[in-house]
Design a protein that fits this description.
280 residues, alpha/beta, Rossmann fold, two-stranded antiparallel sheet, 9 strands, globular, binds thiamine diphosphate
């Protein structure tokens, strides 16, 4: 059992709310949403210095969800933190919504960066981190979430070299290493080999942890913050679709369609896991 019960519960809440959002729509990027819920729980539930009542607070920590198709999971975390009413989640991707399928900083309260064109988030995150440094906001951190398929983009490696050169120790990045991308396994589409060695050789303080353990993620962030010379990379060993039975049993499960009936048993199971986490 995990030490941090509140974060375990928050992760399961994000999971359930995300599934309900997507169930209402009948399709979506369920796989890559499910694999980041523990990370979002740790970030929004504990690690990030934020104030939902003051979302534009300049000194806040920022998050760049570079794999912007995980927007629905980010929105669930934001709603649960009180950035906007939970009922809004059911407007996902509908005409006039504030919650588009991919993150948009101009539309959604609490979203710090517009993303969706893969590869670009590392550059904007570097910009945010450098901006904080230039403005003397030394307590502010920028968090960045990359997909493993996204790391096929050359821009990721240009950013990786630059962040290390700038010794951007207040940039804390994650790769959601769920081993799948849009239409198959990462190792079949473009095998990047050992991600830990790759980022380490680019000069990052790199660790690999169980991406579904809130305790492990928290510990890795604290270790990263304890050093002051390198940008931090945490490779999250995850399962695409984690905790949504329908998605976990579909390959690839990147963007799937489902009826309410098809996804209902998966939601019921996730709700049971949430109830058990609350009782534990
Ligand atoms: C520049 C760019 N090329 C292609 C796409 C289409 N696309 C959306 S998601 C995706 C796969 C991403 O895989 P990964 O980064 O591993 O995300 P995850 O598996 O975590 O969902 C692709 C190719 C895009 N959004 N941006």
């Amino acid at each position: 059992m995990e030490k941090n019960k509140a974060l375990r519960v928050f992760a399961e809440e994000i999971r359930v709310e995300t599934m309900k959002e997507l169930a209402h729509l009948g399709f979506g990027h369920i796989g890559g949403c499910m694999s980041v819920v523990e990370l979002l729980s740790v970030l929004y539930g504990k690690e990030m210095r934020i104030d939902p009542k003051n979302p534009k607070w300049a000194e806040r920590d920022k998050l760049v969800m570079s794999k912007g198709h995980a927007g629905p999971a980010v929105y669930a975390a934001l709603a649960l933190k009180g950035y906007f009413p939970k009922e809004q989640l059911l407007t996902l991707n509908q005409a006039g919504t504030h919650l588009p399928s991919h993150c948009d900083r101009n539309l959604t309260v609490g979203v710090d960066m517009t993303t969706g064109s893969l590869g670009q988030g590392i550059s904007t995150a570097i910009g945010l981190a450098m901006g904080d440094r230039m403005m003397g906001r030394n307590d502010s951190y920028t968090y960045l979430v990359l997909g493993d398929g996204e790391c096929d983009e050359g821009q990721v490696w240009e950013g990786a070299a630059f962040a290390a050169h700038q010794m951007l120790d207040h940039l804390i990045a994650f790769v959601d290493w769920n081993k799948q991308q849009l239409d198959g396994a990462c190792e079949d589409v473009l095998d990047l080999g050992d991600m830990v060695q790759k980022f380490r050789s680019f000069g990052w303080y790199t660790q690999k942890v169980d991406g579904h353990s809130v305790d492990a993620i928290l510990e890795a962030i604290e270790k990263g913050k304890a050093q002051h010379e390198k940008p931090v990379m945490i490779i999250l060993d995850t399962v695409k679709g984690k905790g949504c039975e329908l998605a976990e049993n579909t390959f690839p499960c990147h963007h799937i369609k489902f009826t309410a009936e098809q996804i209902a048993p998966s939601i019921e199971k996730a709700e049971a896991v949430l109830a058990a986490a609350r009782k534990a």
